Amino acid sequence: ADERKNMKEFVPVSFESFVDRNILKRVNHCVSRPIISPPTVEVDVLERTSDDGNWHFRLTGRKTRCINLASYNYLGFAENEGPCVDATAHALQLYGAGVCSTRHELGNYRIHEELERTTARFLGVDDAITFGMGFCTNSMNIPVLVGGKGCLILSDEKNHASIVLGARLSGSVIKVFKHNDIDDLEEKLREAIINGRPKTHRAWRKILIIVEGIYSMEGSIVKLLDVIRLKKKYGAYLYLDEAHSIGALGETGRGVTEYWGVDPGDVDIMMGTFTKSFGAAGGYIAGSKELINHLRAYSHSTLYACSMSAPVAQQTISSMKIIMGEDGTDKGKLRIARLVTNTRYFRQRLREMGFIVCGDDDSPVVPLLVCVPAKILALVEDLFERNIACAPAVFPATPLTEGRIRMCISASHTRQMLDKVLDSISEVGDRMQLKYSL
Ligand code: PMP
């Protein structure tokens, strides 16, 4: 009964803002379905223009190409030709597309080990383990790291669904702290230490704080220095999901630890995905040898899931090496610099126009608050008509009244493309009265 009570404490944030779930159900019922289930974009093929070297995509059934702000292609490596493609195609010829086995059976290729060594080197930690899917990296491994009696998870209210699932599966007591709110996190930690475990008043066996580098719906950057200060003060462990920040933050793309000048060793468990900045698929956990050996032995993802496709591993290795400059060029450096310039320019222009833009200046995730649910779809569709693709972020991914469109900036966007997007948004924004201050 205690366990069930604890589970109840952890409800997704969008639900939390509603006092009565029945009211929520009714509200849900009233808004038209397309707003709840945003239209999916069918992507035919990634295309690359011959003149500017930047990619667009063609939508199924449409003749025109769209400027893509809907994907997380931060460094532009999700291209169909370019520096990684030859090696990836070669890996396909060498190994085939599928491994058809787990790491513990016959699915441990040399390329998997190379990817893990490269990832650990890139992050500046002892070791790393990789998995075929980013979502499962969280949901299947959090229960292997923490769980059972006496474990407490302190989770940011905006954490991704894969973290929420992993935390629930772990069977730990879960407390949610306000988004990026250091005072609330400290209050929850103090409460946990002073009051001990409910009923027994014994100390917690393990306290795990879980945060993200960049929050994908908010565009906010974690206040990592403060979180590390608190985890040390209260003897907790720290799990950091860098799905959106690895490659996209820091002078050399090392993520949010580099961005804040933090020693990676201060983060106990570094998690990230290869689906964004590396233009590939899968995820990693990195940290001490002891941590990684534990996961190699006990992770459900290693024991029972097929290992990563070899061409995908190769794509990740190639893009990571370019970021590190190990291809002997400064292409990686240039991509990182271009992402920063594009991000700052785009955010600043939107703000100057009078839009409400969420998140931190250096975050390439740019959510533009629309609030009125009916306007979100209209805005996205209007932009589609102008060959601009961006994603609607609506309930339940956001609270019902905080719907937004989310745009992701890429190093492969040109200034010309960004200007076209900005001009279009400005025009539609005027018509829909989305500008709040001038
Ligand atoms: N963590 C975070 C913070 C995410 O945003 C996502 C998905 N975008 C994931 C994990 C899951 O990763 P993947 O899409 O690579 O499975």
TrEMBL record:
Family annotation (Gene3D superfamilies): Aspartate Aminotransferase, domain 1, Type I PLP-dependent aspartate aminotransferase-like (Major domain)
Top-level enzyme category:
transferase
One Pfam family here: Aminotran_1_2
Q: Which cofactors, by name?
A: pyridoxal 5'-phosphate
Q: Does the keyword Transmembrane apply?
A: yes
Residue intervals of the Aminotransferase class I/classII large domain: 65-425
Q: Got a GO cellular component term for this one?
A: endoplasmic reticulum
Q: What is its main location?
A: endoplasmic reticulum
User: In its keyword annotation, does this UniProt entry include Ribosomal protein?
Assistant: no
Q: Where in the cell is it found?
A: Endoplasmic reticulum; Membrane
Keywords, ordered alphabetically: Acyltransferase, Endoplasmic reticulum, Lipid metabolism, Membrane, Pyridoxal phosphate, Sphingolipid metabolism, Transferase, Transmembrane, Transmembrane helix
**InterPro entries from the entry?**
Aminotrans_II_pyridoxalP_BS, Aminotransferase_I/II_large, AON_synthase_class-II, PyrdxlP-dep_Trfase, PyrdxlP-dep_Trfase_major, PyrdxlP-dep_Trfase_small
The biological process GO terms on file are: ceramide biosynthetic process; sphingosine biosynthetic process
Give the metabolic or biological pathway: Lipid metabolism; sphingolipid metabolism; Sphingolipid metabolism
Any one GO molecular function term:
serine C-palmitoyltransferase activity
Q: Which family does it belong to?
A: Belongs to the class-II pyridoxal-phosphate-dependent aminotransferase family.
Q: Which PANTHER family does UniProt cross-reference here? A: CLASS II AMINOTRANSFERASE/8-AMINO-7-OXONONANOATE SYNTHASE (PTHR13693), LD36009P (PTHR13693:SF3)
The name this protein goes by in its record: serine C-palmitoyltransferase
Q: What species was this sequence derived from? A: Branchiostoma lanceolatum
Q: Which gene encodes it?
A: SPTLC2
